[in-house]
Amino acid sequence: MPTAAKLSPGEVVARRTITSYTLAPDQLRKAEGLHRTNVLLSLAGTIFGFALLAILIATRFAPRLQRFAESVSRRRIVQAFIVVPALLLTLAVLGLPLDLYAHHISRAYGLSVQSWPSWFADMAKAEFLTIIVASLFLWLIFILIRRAPRLWWLFGWFFALIVIAAMVFVSPILIDPIFNRFDPLAKTNPELTTQLRSLALASGLDIPESRIFLMHASDKVTTYNAYVTGFGATKRIVVWDTTARDLTLPQTLFVFGHEMGHYVLHHIYLGLAFTALLTFIGFFLTQQLAQFALARFGQRWQIATLGEWSSLPLLMLLASLLSFFGEPIANTFSRWEEHHADIYGLTVTQSVTKNAAQVAAQAFQLLGEKSYSYPTPSRLQVIWDYSHPPIADRIRFVLTNPVSAKAIDPEP
Ligand SMILES: [Zn+2]
After folding, report:
1. From ligand 1's centre to the CA of 267, what distance in Å?
2. Are strands 182-184 and 226-229 parallel, antiparallel or unpaired?
3. How far, in Å, is the centroid of ligand 1 from the Cα of 115?
4. 391 alpha carbon to ligand 1 midpoint, in Å?
5. What is the pLDDT of residues 352-398, one digit of tens each?
6. Are strands 212-215 and 236-240 parallel, antiparallel or unpaired?
7. What is this structure's pTM?
8. How far is the CA of 334 from the centre of ligand 1 (A)?
9. Number of compact structural domains in the chain
10. Residues 167 and 214 placed together within one structural domain of the fold
Protein backbone atom coordinates (compact mmCIF):
# COMPACT_ATOMS: atom_id res chain seq x y z
CA MET A 1 0.00 0.00 0.00
CA PRO A 2 1.37 3.43 -0.86
CA THR A 3 1.92 5.55 2.23
CA ALA A 4 1.30 9.28 2.47
CA ALA A 5 4.99 9.85 1.91
CA LYS A 6 5.07 7.83 -1.25
CA LEU A 7 2.09 8.47 -3.46
CA SER A 8 1.88 6.90 -6.89
CA PRO A 9 2.09 9.33 -9.85
CA GLY A 10 -1.64 8.77 -10.40
CA GLU A 11 -2.44 9.71 -6.81
CA VAL A 12 -0.28 12.84 -7.09
CA VAL A 13 -2.11 14.06 -10.18
CA ALA A 14 -5.47 13.08 -8.63
CA ARG A 15 -4.89 15.73 -5.94
CA ARG A 16 -4.88 18.44 -8.59
CA THR A 17 -7.75 19.89 -10.56
CA ILE A 18 -6.75 19.83 -14.21
CA THR A 19 -8.08 22.70 -16.32
CA SER A 20 -5.66 22.39 -19.26
CA TYR A 21 -2.48 20.53 -20.19
CA THR A 22 0.34 22.28 -18.37
CA LEU A 23 3.95 21.35 -17.65
CA ALA A 24 6.24 22.61 -14.88
CA PRO A 25 9.10 24.80 -16.22
CA ASP A 26 11.71 22.01 -16.12
CA GLN A 27 9.29 19.53 -17.72
CA LEU A 28 8.47 22.07 -20.42
CA ARG A 29 12.17 22.59 -21.18
CA LYS A 30 12.59 18.84 -21.57
CA ALA A 31 9.43 18.55 -23.70
CA GLU A 32 10.73 21.31 -26.02
CA GLY A 33 14.15 19.70 -26.30
CA LEU A 34 12.69 16.28 -27.02
CA HIS A 35 10.25 17.72 -29.53
CA ARG A 36 13.03 19.54 -31.43
CA THR A 37 15.19 16.42 -31.49
CA ASN A 38 12.32 14.18 -32.62
CA VAL A 39 11.37 16.53 -35.45
CA LEU A 40 15.00 16.65 -36.63
CA LEU A 41 15.41 12.88 -36.29
CA SER A 42 12.24 12.17 -38.23
CA LEU A 43 13.17 14.64 -40.99
CA ALA A 44 16.73 13.35 -41.19
CA GLY A 45 15.52 9.73 -41.22
CA THR A 46 13.04 10.39 -44.03
CA ILE A 47 15.46 12.33 -46.25
CA PHE A 48 18.30 9.90 -45.52
CA GLY A 49 16.08 6.92 -46.42
CA PHE A 50 15.13 8.44 -49.79
CA ALA A 51 18.72 9.52 -50.49
CA LEU A 52 20.14 6.07 -49.73
CA LEU A 53 17.78 4.35 -52.17
CA ALA A 54 18.44 7.02 -54.81
CA ILE A 55 22.20 6.48 -54.43
CA LEU A 56 21.79 2.70 -54.68
CA ILE A 57 19.81 3.19 -57.93
CA ALA A 58 22.30 5.68 -59.39
CA THR A 59 25.32 3.51 -58.54
CA ARG A 60 23.64 0.40 -60.03
CA PHE A 61 24.01 -1.55 -56.82
CA ALA A 62 21.02 -3.81 -57.53
CA PRO A 63 22.03 -4.81 -61.10
CA ARG A 64 25.35 -6.05 -59.68
CA LEU A 65 23.52 -7.86 -56.89
CA GLN A 66 21.20 -9.42 -59.47
CA ARG A 67 24.12 -10.70 -61.58
CA PHE A 68 25.68 -12.21 -58.47
CA ALA A 69 22.40 -13.89 -57.39
CA GLU A 70 21.85 -15.28 -60.89
CA SER A 71 25.37 -16.69 -60.92
CA VAL A 72 24.68 -18.55 -57.66
CA SER A 73 21.39 -20.16 -58.62
CA ARG A 74 18.83 -20.21 -61.40
CA ARG A 75 16.02 -20.71 -58.90
CA ARG A 76 14.06 -17.51 -58.22
CA ILE A 77 13.45 -18.30 -54.58
CA VAL A 78 17.19 -18.65 -53.94
CA GLN A 79 17.83 -15.39 -55.78
CA ALA A 80 15.14 -13.69 -53.66
CA PHE A 81 16.86 -14.86 -50.49
CA ILE A 82 20.16 -13.36 -51.73
CA VAL A 83 18.95 -10.04 -53.21
CA VAL A 84 16.37 -9.04 -50.58
CA PRO A 85 18.50 -9.73 -47.45
CA ALA A 86 21.56 -8.09 -49.02
CA LEU A 87 19.59 -4.96 -49.84
CA LEU A 88 17.75 -4.77 -46.51
CA LEU A 89 20.92 -5.38 -44.49
CA THR A 90 22.79 -2.68 -46.44
CA LEU A 91 20.01 -0.20 -45.68
CA ALA A 92 19.87 -1.29 -42.02
CA VAL A 93 23.62 -0.92 -41.49
CA LEU A 94 23.76 2.50 -43.18
CA GLY A 95 20.74 3.65 -41.14
CA LEU A 96 22.14 2.34 -37.86
CA PRO A 97 23.72 5.62 -36.66
CA LEU A 98 20.32 7.34 -36.68
CA ASP A 99 18.72 4.39 -34.83
CA LEU A 100 21.52 4.44 -32.24
CA TYR A 101 21.03 8.16 -31.70
CA ALA A 102 17.24 7.75 -31.33
CA HIS A 103 17.68 5.10 -28.64
CA HIS A 104 20.32 7.24 -26.92
CA ILE A 105 17.79 10.10 -26.79
CA SER A 106 15.09 7.84 -25.33
CA ARG A 107 17.49 6.75 -22.61
CA ALA A 108 18.78 10.26 -21.97
CA TYR A 109 15.21 11.53 -21.41
CA GLY A 110 14.39 8.56 -19.21
CA LEU A 111 11.67 7.28 -21.55
CA SER A 112 13.57 4.04 -22.10
CA VAL A 113 15.42 1.92 -19.55
CA GLN A 114 16.38 -0.70 -22.11
CA SER A 115 20.07 -1.68 -22.04
CA TRP A 116 22.11 -1.51 -25.23
CA PRO A 117 22.56 -5.32 -25.53
CA SER A 118 18.80 -5.85 -25.15
CA TRP A 119 18.13 -3.08 -27.69
CA PHE A 120 20.57 -4.63 -30.18
CA ALA A 121 18.93 -8.02 -29.66
CA ASP A 122 15.51 -6.51 -30.47
CA MET A 123 16.91 -4.81 -33.59
CA ALA A 124 18.45 -8.10 -34.77
CA LYS A 125 15.25 -10.05 -34.15
CA ALA A 126 13.14 -7.44 -35.95
CA GLU A 127 15.55 -7.35 -38.90
CA PHE A 128 15.57 -11.15 -39.12
CA LEU A 129 11.75 -11.35 -39.16
CA THR A 130 11.54 -8.55 -41.73
CA ILE A 131 14.05 -10.28 -44.01
CA ILE A 132 12.18 -13.60 -43.92
CA VAL A 133 8.75 -12.07 -44.57
CA ALA A 134 10.05 -9.57 -47.17
CA SER A 135 12.04 -12.20 -49.10
CA LEU A 136 9.00 -14.49 -49.41
CA PHE A 137 6.67 -11.60 -50.20
CA LEU A 138 8.94 -10.11 -52.87
CA TRP A 139 9.66 -13.52 -54.40
CA LEU A 140 5.92 -13.78 -55.10
CA ILE A 141 5.56 -10.15 -56.18
CA PHE A 142 8.32 -10.57 -58.77
CA ILE A 143 6.67 -13.74 -60.09
CA LEU A 144 3.49 -11.67 -60.52
CA ILE A 145 5.35 -8.82 -62.25
CA ARG A 146 6.92 -11.28 -64.71
CA ARG A 147 3.68 -13.20 -65.41
CA ALA A 148 1.32 -10.21 -65.50
CA PRO A 149 3.36 -7.07 -66.29
CA ARG A 150 0.25 -4.89 -66.57
CA LEU A 151 -1.96 -6.23 -63.81
CA TRP A 152 0.59 -7.44 -61.25
CA TRP A 153 -0.20 -4.49 -58.99
CA LEU A 154 -3.83 -5.62 -58.62
CA PHE A 155 -2.90 -9.22 -57.75
CA GLY A 156 -0.01 -7.94 -55.66
CA TRP A 157 -2.34 -5.66 -53.73
CA PHE A 158 -4.70 -8.55 -53.03
CA PHE A 159 -1.81 -10.73 -51.91
CA ALA A 160 -0.45 -7.90 -49.71
CA LEU A 161 -3.85 -7.64 -48.02
CA ILE A 162 -3.77 -11.33 -47.14
CA VAL A 163 -0.26 -10.92 -45.72
CA ILE A 164 -1.25 -7.80 -43.70
CA ALA A 165 -4.38 -9.50 -42.30
CA ALA A 166 -2.36 -12.62 -41.45
CA MET A 167 0.28 -10.50 -39.69
CA VAL A 168 -2.36 -8.65 -37.63
CA PHE A 169 -3.89 -12.01 -36.73
CA VAL A 170 -0.69 -13.79 -35.67
CA SER A 171 1.19 -10.80 -34.18
CA PRO A 172 -0.30 -11.07 -30.65
CA ILE A 173 0.52 -14.77 -30.35
CA LEU A 174 3.63 -15.22 -32.50
CA ILE A 175 5.45 -11.89 -32.89
CA ASP A 176 4.73 -9.68 -29.85
CA PRO A 177 5.94 -12.36 -27.36
CA ILE A 178 9.34 -12.35 -29.11
CA PHE A 179 9.86 -8.76 -27.89
CA ASN A 180 7.90 -8.50 -24.63
CA ARG A 181 6.62 -10.66 -21.78
CA PHE A 182 2.84 -11.04 -21.43
CA ASP A 183 0.73 -12.47 -18.62
CA PRO A 184 -3.00 -12.73 -18.15
CA LEU A 185 -3.89 -9.55 -16.23
CA ALA A 186 -5.95 -11.73 -13.85
CA LYS A 187 -2.74 -13.44 -12.75
CA THR A 188 -0.91 -10.26 -11.69
CA ASN A 189 -3.83 -7.89 -10.95
CA PRO A 190 -6.94 -9.98 -10.12
CA GLU A 191 -8.74 -7.10 -8.40
CA LEU A 192 -8.15 -4.74 -11.32
CA THR A 193 -9.27 -7.42 -13.80
CA THR A 194 -12.58 -7.84 -11.96
CA GLN A 195 -13.16 -4.08 -12.05
CA LEU A 196 -12.30 -3.82 -15.73
CA ARG A 197 -14.56 -6.74 -16.62
CA SER A 198 -17.51 -5.32 -14.73
CA LEU A 199 -17.03 -1.97 -16.48
CA ALA A 200 -17.09 -3.84 -19.80
CA LEU A 201 -20.17 -5.85 -18.77
CA ALA A 202 -21.97 -2.69 -17.67
CA SER A 203 -21.70 -1.44 -21.26
CA GLY A 204 -22.86 -4.74 -22.69
CA LEU A 205 -19.46 -6.07 -23.64
CA ASP A 206 -18.36 -9.45 -22.35
CA ILE A 207 -14.56 -9.45 -22.63
CA PRO A 208 -13.38 -12.75 -21.16
CA GLU A 209 -10.46 -12.71 -18.72
CA SER A 210 -8.48 -14.71 -21.26
CA ARG A 211 -8.60 -11.67 -23.59
CA ILE A 212 -7.09 -9.17 -21.12
CA PHE A 213 -3.30 -9.15 -20.83
CA LEU A 214 -0.60 -7.38 -18.88
CA MET A 215 2.56 -6.50 -20.80
CA HIS A 216 5.76 -6.18 -18.78
CA ALA A 217 6.64 -2.88 -20.44
CA SER A 218 8.69 -1.71 -17.45
CA ASP A 219 11.47 -4.05 -18.60
CA LYS A 220 12.14 -1.50 -21.34
CA VAL A 221 10.22 1.76 -20.93
CA THR A 222 8.85 4.13 -18.29
CA THR A 223 5.91 5.49 -20.32
CA TYR A 224 2.24 4.44 -20.12
CA ASN A 225 0.10 2.69 -22.68
CA ALA A 226 -2.67 0.19 -23.36
CA TYR A 227 -3.90 -1.10 -26.70
CA VAL A 228 -6.22 -3.43 -28.60
CA THR A 229 -4.67 -5.87 -31.05
CA GLY A 230 -5.34 -8.95 -33.18
CA PHE A 231 -8.73 -9.96 -34.54
CA GLY A 232 -11.09 -12.90 -34.36
CA ALA A 233 -9.58 -15.57 -32.15
CA THR A 234 -6.52 -13.41 -31.29
CA LYS A 235 -8.29 -10.11 -30.50
CA ARG A 236 -7.24 -8.83 -27.06
CA ILE A 237 -6.78 -5.84 -24.78
CA VAL A 238 -3.27 -5.27 -23.48
CA VAL A 239 -2.49 -3.03 -20.50
CA TRP A 240 1.14 -2.06 -19.86
CA ASP A 241 2.34 -2.85 -16.32
CA THR A 242 3.53 0.76 -15.99
CA THR A 243 -0.08 1.90 -16.46
CA ALA A 244 -1.52 -0.64 -14.00
CA ARG A 245 1.17 0.28 -11.44
CA ASP A 246 1.14 4.11 -11.57
CA LEU A 247 -2.45 5.10 -12.42
CA THR A 248 -5.25 5.12 -9.86
CA LEU A 249 -8.15 2.73 -10.39
CA PRO A 250 -10.51 5.39 -11.87
CA GLN A 251 -7.73 6.62 -14.20
CA THR A 252 -6.99 3.05 -15.31
CA LEU A 253 -10.72 2.48 -15.88
CA PHE A 254 -10.77 5.48 -18.23
CA VAL A 255 -7.75 4.21 -20.17
CA PHE A 256 -9.44 0.80 -20.36
CA GLY A 257 -12.70 2.45 -21.44
CA HIS A 258 -10.82 4.12 -24.30
CA GLU A 259 -9.38 0.73 -25.35
CA MET A 260 -12.84 -0.82 -25.07
CA GLY A 261 -13.97 1.88 -27.49
CA HIS A 262 -11.51 0.57 -30.09
CA TYR A 263 -12.82 -2.93 -29.40
CA VAL A 264 -16.54 -2.09 -29.54
CA LEU A 265 -16.31 0.36 -32.43
CA HIS A 266 -14.51 -2.32 -34.53
CA HIS A 267 -11.44 -0.16 -35.08
CA ILE A 268 -9.23 -3.13 -36.02
CA TYR A 269 -11.52 -4.05 -38.92
CA LEU A 270 -12.01 -0.41 -39.90
CA GLY A 271 -8.24 0.01 -39.86
CA LEU A 272 -7.77 -3.02 -42.10
CA ALA A 273 -10.39 -1.73 -44.54
CA PHE A 274 -8.74 1.69 -44.60
CA THR A 275 -5.32 0.08 -45.15
CA ALA A 276 -6.82 -1.90 -48.03
CA LEU A 277 -7.97 1.32 -49.69
CA LEU A 278 -4.64 3.15 -49.20
CA THR A 279 -2.52 0.20 -50.39
CA PHE A 280 -4.75 -0.21 -53.47
CA ILE A 281 -3.91 3.36 -54.49
CA GLY A 282 -0.29 2.77 -53.47
CA PHE A 283 0.16 -0.34 -55.63
CA PHE A 284 -1.49 1.31 -58.63
CA LEU A 285 0.65 4.46 -58.39
CA THR A 286 3.82 2.42 -57.84
CA GLN A 287 3.17 0.56 -61.11
CA GLN A 288 2.45 3.79 -63.04
CA LEU A 289 5.45 5.69 -61.68
CA ALA A 290 7.81 2.72 -62.07
CA GLN A 291 6.87 2.26 -65.75
CA PHE A 292 7.31 5.98 -66.34
CA ALA A 293 10.75 6.00 -64.64
CA LEU A 294 11.93 2.87 -66.47
CA ALA A 295 10.90 4.22 -69.87
CA ARG A 296 13.13 7.26 -69.27
CA PHE A 297 16.01 6.00 -67.17
CA GLY A 298 15.87 2.19 -67.36
CA GLN A 299 18.91 2.00 -69.59
CA ARG A 300 20.99 4.38 -67.49
CA TRP A 301 20.10 2.50 -64.29
CA GLN A 302 20.65 -0.90 -65.97
CA ILE A 303 17.11 -2.04 -65.20
CA ALA A 304 15.85 -3.89 -68.30
CA THR A 305 12.31 -4.53 -67.05
CA LEU A 306 10.37 -4.16 -63.81
CA GLY A 307 10.45 -7.95 -63.41
CA GLU A 308 14.24 -7.95 -62.87
CA TRP A 309 15.66 -7.94 -59.33
CA SER A 310 17.57 -4.81 -60.34
CA SER A 311 14.32 -2.82 -60.07
CA LEU A 312 13.90 -3.52 -56.35
CA PRO A 313 15.49 -0.28 -55.00
CA LEU A 314 13.34 1.71 -57.45
CA LEU A 315 10.18 -0.06 -56.24
CA MET A 316 11.23 0.54 -52.64
CA LEU A 317 11.94 4.23 -53.27
CA LEU A 318 8.56 4.73 -54.94
CA ALA A 319 6.76 2.81 -52.18
CA SER A 320 8.48 4.83 -49.45
CA LEU A 321 7.79 8.16 -51.21
CA LEU A 322 4.13 7.22 -51.60
CA SER A 323 3.82 6.07 -48.00
CA PHE A 324 5.43 9.33 -46.85
CA PHE A 325 2.79 11.31 -48.70
CA GLY A 326 0.12 8.90 -47.47
CA GLU A 327 1.06 9.52 -43.83
CA PRO A 328 -1.19 12.57 -43.32
CA ILE A 329 -4.16 10.55 -44.62
CA ALA A 330 -3.39 7.51 -42.44
CA ASN A 331 -2.73 9.66 -39.36
CA THR A 332 -5.88 11.72 -39.86
CA PHE A 333 -7.87 8.48 -39.95
CA SER A 334 -6.06 7.25 -36.83
CA ARG A 335 -6.74 10.52 -34.93
CA TRP A 336 -10.41 10.20 -35.86
CA GLU A 337 -10.50 6.68 -34.37
CA GLU A 338 -8.63 7.79 -31.24
CA HIS A 339 -11.01 10.70 -30.74
CA HIS A 340 -13.98 8.35 -30.89
CA ALA A 341 -12.30 5.97 -28.45
CA ASP A 342 -11.87 8.97 -26.09
CA ILE A 343 -15.58 9.74 -26.37
CA TYR A 344 -16.40 6.11 -25.68
CA GLY A 345 -14.04 5.89 -22.69
CA LEU A 346 -15.50 9.04 -21.17
CA THR A 347 -19.06 7.86 -21.72
CA VAL A 348 -18.68 4.39 -20.22
CA THR A 349 -16.80 5.62 -17.13
CA GLN A 350 -19.43 8.25 -16.35
CA SER A 351 -21.64 5.59 -14.75
CA VAL A 352 -18.92 4.25 -12.43
CA THR A 353 -16.61 7.22 -11.80
CA LYS A 354 -17.50 10.41 -10.00
CA ASN A 355 -16.41 13.36 -12.13
CA ALA A 356 -15.28 11.14 -15.01
CA ALA A 357 -14.22 14.09 -17.17
CA GLN A 358 -11.74 15.32 -14.52
CA VAL A 359 -10.37 11.78 -14.07
CA ALA A 360 -9.90 11.49 -17.85
CA ALA A 361 -8.10 14.84 -17.89
CA GLN A 362 -5.83 13.65 -15.05
CA ALA A 363 -5.00 10.46 -16.95
CA PHE A 364 -4.07 12.51 -20.04
CA GLN A 365 -2.04 14.98 -17.96
CA LEU A 366 -0.08 12.07 -16.49
CA LEU A 367 0.44 10.44 -19.90
CA GLY A 368 1.70 13.78 -21.25
CA GLU A 369 4.03 14.47 -18.31
CA LYS A 370 5.49 10.99 -18.41
CA SER A 371 6.40 11.09 -22.10
CA TYR A 372 7.25 14.84 -22.14
CA SER A 373 4.52 15.34 -24.70
CA TYR A 374 4.98 18.73 -26.38
CA PRO A 375 2.06 21.04 -25.51
CA THR A 376 1.89 23.14 -28.70
CA PRO A 377 2.80 21.19 -31.87
CA SER A 378 2.16 23.01 -35.17
CA ARG A 379 -0.95 22.22 -37.18
CA LEU A 380 1.10 20.75 -40.04
CA GLN A 381 2.97 18.51 -37.65
CA VAL A 382 -0.22 17.16 -36.09
CA ILE A 383 -1.74 16.46 -39.51
CA TRP A 384 1.40 14.74 -40.80
CA ASP A 385 2.81 12.97 -37.78
CA TYR A 386 0.30 12.55 -34.97
CA SER A 387 -1.53 9.22 -34.75
CA HIS A 388 -3.37 10.57 -31.66
CA PRO A 389 -4.79 14.05 -31.09
CA PRO A 390 -2.32 16.23 -29.10
CA ILE A 391 -2.69 15.79 -25.32
CA ALA A 392 -3.78 19.43 -24.89
CA ASP A 393 -6.67 18.88 -27.34
CA ARG A 394 -7.73 15.64 -25.64
CA ILE A 395 -7.82 17.34 -22.24
CA ARG A 396 -9.72 20.33 -23.61
CA PHE A 397 -12.23 17.99 -25.25
CA VAL A 398 -13.00 15.84 -22.19
CA LEU A 399 -13.32 18.94 -19.98
CA THR A 400 -15.56 20.95 -22.28
CA ASN A 401 -17.71 18.40 -24.11
CA PRO A 402 -20.12 16.49 -21.89
CA VAL A 403 -20.88 13.40 -23.94
CA SER A 404 -24.17 11.60 -23.75
CA ALA A 405 -24.67 7.85 -23.55
CA LYS A 406 -26.17 8.12 -27.05
CA ALA A 407 -22.69 8.77 -28.39
CA ILE A 408 -21.85 5.08 -27.94
CA ASP A 409 -22.52 2.60 -30.64
CA PRO A 410 -22.82 -0.61 -28.63
CA GLU A 411 -22.23 -4.00 -30.17
CA PRO A 412 -25.55 -5.57 -31.15
ZN1 LIG B 1 -6.39 4.47 -28.63
Report:
1. 9
2. unpaired
3. 28
4. 12
5. 888 999 999 999 999 999 999 999 999 999 999 999 999 999 999 99
6. parallel
7. 0.89
8. 9
9. 2
10. no
